[in-house]
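Protocol step 4 of 6: structure prediction from sequence.
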Amino acid sequence: MAPAGGGVWWGGHDTVEGRIKADPVYQRLAVAREDRAVFLPYGRPVPIGGALSFGTVLSIPWAVDQIVPRLVA
């Protein structure tokens, strides 16, 4: 969990977000009930998770630029 009381998830496949959100255990979490989770796609449409996994001098700043607006929203 993030210090602000949210959750950040990134998965290896484009269907991960839907599967996590459909899971009854996830649905019972406060972060899910209060819509405080951020899902970072690994592939399409924007490969933020991939950029984090690559961990290069170019991918990390790009990923941060993509993630910050999602955390603020």
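Step 5 (inspection) to follow. The longest strand covers residues 7-10.
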